[in-house]
Amino acid sequence: MSLREIMSKTLSEWMKGTGPESDIVISSRVRLARNLEGIPFPGVAGEEQLKTVVEKTKEAAARQPLLAGADYIRLVELPVLERQLLVEKHLISPQHTKDVKYKAVVVRDDEALSIMVNEEDHLRFQALYPGLQPEEAWRLCSRIDEGFASLLPYAVSPDIGYLTACPTNVGTGMRASIMIHLPALTMADQMKRLINAVAQVGLVVRGIYGEGTEVLGNIFQISNQVTLGRTEDEIIQHLLSITRQIIDQERQARRRILQQNKVRLEDKIFRSLGLLTNARIMSSQEAMQLISDVRLGIDMKLISGLEPRILQELLVMIRPAHLQKLMGHEMEAPERDIMRATLIRERMKPHPAK
Amino acid sequence: MSLREIMSKTLSEWMKGTGPESDIVISSRVRLARNLEGIPFPGVAGEEQLKTVVEKTKEAAARQPLLAGADYIRLVELPVLERQLLVEKHLISPQHTKDVKYKAVVVRDDEALSIMVNEEDHLRFQALYPGLQPEEAWRLCSRIDEGFASLLPYAVSPDIGYLTACPTNVGTGMRASIMIHLPALTMADQMKRLINAVAQVGLVVRGIYGEGTEVLGNIFQISNQVTLGRTEDEIIQHLLSITRQIIDQERQARRRILQQNKVRLEDKIFRSLGLLTNARIMSSQEAMQLISDVRLGIDMKLISGLEPRILQELLVMIRPAHLQKLMGHEMEAPERDIMRATLIRERMKPHPAK
User: Fold this and answer.
1) N-term to C-term CA, chain B
2) From CA B160, how far away is CA B158, in angstroms rounded?
3) Which of A20, A227, A293, B255 is 20 to 30 Å from A38 at the Cα level?
4) SS3 labels along A116-179
5) How far is A188 from chain B (nearest CA, A)?
6) Residue A61: CB partners within 8 Å, gap ≥ 6?
7) CB within 8 A of A56, min separation 6: which ones?
8) Which residues in chain A touch residue B266, judged by CB atoms under 8 angstroms apart?
């Protein structure tokens, strides 16, 4: 199998770079936190109780038409590398790879739908769509939620809604987030201002793997802070409306840079292209930044003949677990840096159309 | 006319990257300082005397078969840009472009032979050959010297030889120099040691335009310090022998880098290639350094499909006067940086064979 084929098999739908506003928005995600009635939250539950959660959710999952063909996988049965792979694909949280004894995951083939069992809550449903589609993600998440609700009684308070381990999730139990590429706002030094402004309307901007993680390649996650006192639809509409404003600002910033100093922007973008397609050793961090520059060049039509989806794919494929999976063996960082550079060069080489 | 054609017309023979040891040695140059008997050195001569030098040397030049077809050019008649062009081609010294009233230059079509009139001395003959050919340069210089000597009486002391304005040139009046590319010794931090060692055997290592000039692109000039008490042949043989040792050391340093960390070297070289072929803005200094890296890559057979002569040409073509000549108008530095990047990309693009 060629590298290209192996890679395309490893790719999730959301990485393919399609979907509305895909020149700026990478993906839309909705997750719902749910807990089973009468069982303590995973952090405080005993082994028997955690086991019960696994048994009950496994049974419920098997009866969901939406999960047809998807395996219910115990994390203990998954090699460490495979767990890391799921993190890099944003299908499970980094936290879900630790203390795995009673943790499980269900991932639908297209990876648009996944469930974490016994993470912070008993159940965390996630729907992940390419581009700006939070409503679609919410609808899918809602349907799987209803499917489980019809089989398993949830912990709900009539006053405040769904009960969750962490009070920040109480109410709807929903976190909707948009992964968004904001290179021009970053170049224009506008992100600090934007993060503050967004905080004042109840949203939060974070790094690429969520809370507490680093911003890489000018990719940010915008998500709702408030889960209580609003309906899910209201939360989605609010996030959508603010995201549209941010998209507008990013577009304006791009136009401004183009007007003010096109050649300097081109210089930056093409230098990044030159390094990506020629370097022999490359760290993950450098690669993310260069990919961001080149992606901007494509989206601003300064670079032609390079598909944006190649860069979208690379954003995931260059991460440590994906690289090791691709190469078929474990690698230390220096070897990974060489393989990463090789993979990027190989993938960005012009290929004859099939 | 295409850029490629214009450029090839602007090129001197020595820039074409041929000649012995041309993977390391760029060019070999010999110059002889001579003064006319009974006339003070240019620095102290009166206007009438300088005029006399011009008249006499013009007449003598016209009678040299070696200079058939070459024009005798008064510097005053040459636009400032053209003067600078001759400096960048190493045909005249930077000093020769100032106070030009009674200065002149003769340049043979192939640029292998040139004469400065009323620089520091009345006559400075120069022969310039590609690669390591100081003996050939000396032979040519000697022949033109004999041609002039048969017509014009030189200032000579029977005890010490030719008299010159600066005592450091007295005796043979000869300065033989080798322009040499030493990237591996530079990377290995060996240049300081080498410069000291070379000084102890009566040679001197300088930057690209001679005394007091900066080292650019890892290109050095090695020349004799001593002009007195040795024959010209001895000076040439000594320079040749020391240069061969330096070439050996550079080759060893290249092999060592290759053995110790090939991929790191490749990374450096290919990153430079990527920047050269993609940047939109480039300073002269950056370009020289990147060209040096890529040239090393070609000479070490790490890069294929790129002719070394293209880089040799670019080393000269990217300098300010050449750039402006090529573009047909004067340019400020920011515009030059853009044109320089354009020229480099254009020239390094793979062209179909004619």
Assistant:
1) 15
2) 6
3) A227
4) EECCCCCEEEEEEEECCCHHHHHHHHHHHHHHHHCCCCECEECCCEECCCCHHHCECCEEEEEE
5) 20
6) A67, A70, A72, A106, A115, A148
7) A36, A152
8) 280
Element housing B129 (H / E): strand B123-130
Longest CA–CA span in chain B (Å) reads: 65
Could you give the ipTM of this predicted complex?
Answer: 0.84
Residues B149-205: tens digit of each pLDDT: 999 999 999 989 999 999 999 999 999 999 999 999 999 999 989 999 999 999 999
Indicate left, alpha or beta for B212 from its phi (over 0: left) and psi (-120 to 50: alpha): left
> Taking Cα atoms as reference points, which of B309, B329, B338 lies closest to residue B8?
B309
The CATH code belonging to domain B3-252 is 3.30.590.10
Q: Quick one: average pLDDT of A25-35?
A: 96
Angle between helices B308-317 and B284-299 (to 10 degrees): 160
By 3-state DSSP, what share of chain A in percent is helix, strand and coil, each rounded to 5? 50, 15, 35
Pairwise CB contact (< 8 Å): B279 & A273: no
Instruction: Compare CB distances from B275 to A264, A275, A280 and report the shortest one's residue.
Output: A275
A92 in contact with chain B, both atoms CB, cutoff 8 A:
no
> What is the tens place of the pLDDT at every residue in B97-108?
999 999 999 999
pLDDT at B227: 83
Contact A28, A21 (CB under 8 A): no
Q: Residue B268 pLDDT > 50, yes or no? A: yes
> Any residues with CB less than 8 A from the CB of B269 and at least 6 apart, and which?
B293, B294, B296, B297, B302, B303
Residue B1 has pLDDT above 50, yes or no: no
Q: Cα(B332)–Cα(B186) distance, rounded to whole angstroms?
A: 32
> What mean pLDDT value characterizes chain A?
90
Q: How far is B275 from chain A (nearest CA, A)?
A: 5
Any chain B CB within 8 A of the CB of A203? no
Residue A353: pLDDT band by 50, 70, 90 thresholds? very low
For chain B, which residues make up each domain, given as ranges?
3-252, 261-347
Counted across chains A and B, CB pairs separated by less than 8 A come out at 50
Spatial separation of the C-alpha atoms in residues A143 and B224, rounded to whole Å: 87
Closest residue to A270, CB basis, from B264, B278, B338: B278
